[in-house]
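Case study B.
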Amino acid sequence: MNQSGKAATTHFLHQRVSAALLVPLAIWFLWAALSMVGAEHRVVLAFLARPLNAALTILFVLAAAYHMALGVRVVIEDYVHGGAGPALLVLNKLFALTMALACTLAVLFIAW
Amino acid sequence: MPDGAKGSTARPLSPHLQIYRWPITMATSIVHRATGVALAGGMAFLAWWLIAAAAGPDAYANFEAAAGHPIGGAVLFGFVWSLTYHLLNGVRHLVWDLGYGFAPATAERTGAFIIALSILIAVAIFWTGYVAAGGPFS
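Model:
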């Protein structure tokens, strides 16, 4: 809301750079998740404990959380007028940060 | 609407979402946003999966029970299709940003193609995940 032209351009760019990054990451993640459907707990732990898998999962989560924060922000700005808007924008950021932190810590806890 | 001198009651009205025939491009745009918002829920589901895995076998068993339940499966299918659709249509948007495929006829065609392809891929993923793994829908 009321963002300057410069901030809006940054938003536009970051939305697209994170999108481009997410294309291969999301495909990799879909494949990884699919391969673990119904797998035993220890198999999932072994998968996430491998450094490359842990790094890619964390990258996916961070890129997705950032992309989500940017995207949901636009939806709030477009459809929520008046009262609840500013509070929702803060909640949106908090939600993205919480998700990014929780997922990253969980993966690090497993992989360390 | 009063009948004027050239009075025709069949003049075009401004779009009214309930009765307006959605052009494909409008549908793909709205669905892109809707799937994006739905994927925020998917993010919470992903966090649950990772935290449950980190927390131990009992927490993980709870997650698996929820994901294996038909309702959980339906929700998961929603996330899988949302991700597939948002990913494919996102690439369509990136191609537009590079300056290609924005002609109305082209955009209509790629839009219809992406809707069909996203459903096919989501069903294929789900088939592989649930039926092949002996899930509740097998």
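The CA atoms of residues 36 and 43 of chain A lie 8 Å apart. The remaining cases will be described in the next quarterly update.
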